[in-house]
């Protein structure tokens, strides 16, 4: 679901602020009902009309990108750095990344214009597993991984239980490769989790997002999601919500 004024702005009716004025002045109907108050949210199936004319809603589109290092997970950057949407100049729809990966973090990133699905995937109440592979400083041990799996306190809040396993360890270079699966998506969470147990992250890649993986995608490459993959993401979110209720 998205705010009505945001949907109107995306459809090119007016700016978001001007769209709010149109709503308050009684120019907008949702499913035939006049709306004059702000805060109303609409989904993809809702019919929105402005002065009796249905707005042209963009067809939803979904991409999986293998985000390369050195790009910002955004649609613009005030420092004029490269952003992930620079790789999609051929796409007419206004897409945006679902969540974010840090500038130096690589891997699976979803981009879409479907605000309803985007909100589901990012909201804390919907638990979608994401698997990362981290190269960390030091020879990590099972006891340290147990701390990650049981949840650790970061900035006053305890992380949810995770899954972790050691993929490899190099005694000469004093580094380890660790796979970590979490369903939360707080800012720099994986890096903070490893730092909290004394193993700073040198490199980080998100290998999977829900049922999606990067098979066949090199850094900077992307593919459009199939309809069944989008449905799988929705189902994962809905099932996780049921488990919490």
Summarize the structure in words:
There is one protein chain. This protein is α+β, with helices and mostly antiparallel strands and 245 residues long. The chain has three domains: 53 residues, RNA-binding S4 domain (Structural Genomics Hypothetical 15.5 Kd Protein In mrcA-pckA Intergenic Region, Chain A, Roll), CATH 3.10.290.10; 94 residues, 2-Layer Sandwich (Alpha-Beta Plaits), CATH 3.30.70; 80 residues, Alpha-Beta Plaits, CATH 3.30.70. 24% of the residues lie in helices and 29% in strands. It contains six helices and 17 strands. α1 packs across α2. The longest helix is centred in the C-terminal third of the chain and has 18 residues. It starts with a strand and ends with a helix.
Task: Walk me through the topology.
Elements: E1 2-3, H1 4-10, H2 16-24, E2 28-30, E3 33-35, E4 41-42, E5 48-50, E6 53-54, E7 62-67, E8 96-97, E9 106-112, H3 115-122, E10 130-137, H4 142-150, E11 153-154, E12 157-158, E13 163-170, E14 175-182, H5 189-196, E15 201-209, E16 212-213, E17 222-224, H6 227-244
Parallel strand pairs: 9-15
Antiparallel strand pairs: 1-4, 2-3, 2-5, 5-6, 7-9, 7-17, 8-9, 10-14, 10-15, 11-12, 13-14, 15-16
* Fraction of helical residues: 10-25%
> What is the H level of CATH, i.e. the homologous superfamily of the largest domain?
Pseudouridine synthase I, catalytic domain, N-terminal subdomain
Largest sheet data: 9 strands, mixed
Strand content: 25-35%
Unreliable stretches: none
Distance between the termini: 20 Å
